[in-house]
Specification:
Strand content of chain B: 15-25%
Shape of chain A: elongated
Number of domains of chain B: 3
CATH superfamily of the largest domain in chain B: Response regulator
Helix content of chain B: 40-55%
Strand order of the largest sheet of chain B: 1-2-3-5-4
Number of strands of chain B: 13
Order of helices and strands of chain A: HHH
CATH topology of the largest domain in chain B: Rossmann fold
Distance between the termini of chain B: 216 Å
Number of strands of chain A: 0
Distance between the termini of chain A: 45 Å
CATH class of the largest domain in chain B: Alpha Beta
Number of helices of chain B: 9
Largest sheet of chain A: none
Strand content of chain A: under 5%
Helix content of chain A: over 70%
Shape of chain B: elongated
Oligomer: heterodimer
Structural class of chain A: mainly alpha
Chain lengths: 70, 414
Amino acid sequence: MQEANETMKTEQTYDKAILRLEQIAKSMEDGDVTIDRLTADLKEAQQLLAFCRDKLTKAEAEVQKLLQPE
Amino acid sequence: MDRTFTLYDINSGIRQYLEDVFATPVWVQAEIAECSVATNGHCYMELVQKDLDGHSFVARARATIWANRYRNVAATFAKATGERLRAGLQVRLKARVTFHEVYGYSLNVTDIDPAYTLGDMAQRRRQILGRLEREGVLADNKGLPLPTLLKRIAVVSSGTAAGYGDFCDQLLHNGYGLAFTVELFQAYMQGEQTGPSVARALADIIECGRDWDCVVIIRGGGATSDLSDFDDYTLAYTITQMPLPVIVGIGHERDQTALDFVAHTSVKTPTAAAAFILQHQVEQLARVEAVADLLPRAVAAICQQHRHRLDVLASQMAMLPQRRLNAGLNALDRTEQRLHTALRQLLMQHDFRLRMLAQRLAALDPQRQLERGYSLTYTADGRLLRTAGCVRLGDVLTTRLATGTLRSTVTENG
């Protein structure tokens, strides 16, 4: 898990994260995910959601700042 | 007493005189003041010549094109000029000077020279444009896209021309606070050297190595006839091959030169050229401002869209694992059920088999035969007796009945 976090810190992007989220959601919807993986996938999804929300909020704030007339 | 002439004498004398002087047809240049074609096909015209100011007539005459000539003359004229014979046209026509004692003086027209009407200038212009078209380059400059911004402008003009001043004034003192870089490339704007000189200036613009957004060719004032100096094939060709859009403002309200046809944009005057550039800049500015207005809303919409997507994913994450677990539990339940059913069936099968075996065993029990009246007889050494020949007289035999046993002695064997 620590390794996964490291990877997330260095390489994670919003686009990759959201793609992975969609993938997890789909495998759960289709019932493809095994019970063994279920909790691990859910944990990963929650981390990715937090990551994406954080990115989006920051980007939104930055855009607002940029659009402010000088 | 002085001699008195009859009117006929006078008129026939004039006729005779004119016939002597104008024995053959002559070429006459004049303006058509009136022109009508009668139902019989004859064309009647009123020809005039105006004074230099163009205000009053200095000469006037009736002219006729007889129907048999008119069809041919009018068709040739229309084909060459694109115009029908009408009032206001300057024409050069071939006519016989005639005089009739009753109807008076008239010109009997037999031919009209379209080249005159078109003017040498216009005819030359058509030739130039025709050649450029055949060469496939006529619209090359027109085909260039106008750059988004027209800020760096190379001007070809005569530095002393009022037109250049007008252009700069209009452009640099615009009411929008727009900045321009304008540089003059000097050229002769009238006279025989005009064509080569302007072409040279255009080459200089490219060769100077600096970046320009467009080229403007302007001149101020000047007589209309001077415009013919711009009807130069080499110059027109140079413009078609310019890598920058060329805007010309050398025209006149009514007249055009070959340059007006080959340039990217043609306007009447230097002021109009400046106005065209300004208008373009203002439009671009408006586009930028429109985008600036649009941007915050567009960004907000994108963020909103992503937020919604994340919300959907979050709600899925709250629901889907439980659904997956339920599916797992259901599967377990179903498996358990199947197991129970299978076990029950297995037990029933074994029970049935046992019963059958018991029945078969029961059928084989010897007691059942004894009870039906059969008996078993053994010899003294305990062997089961099946044949009478195996015993001798006096042997003691033991017989087993359904109930109890008998001992007996053999008295007869036979």
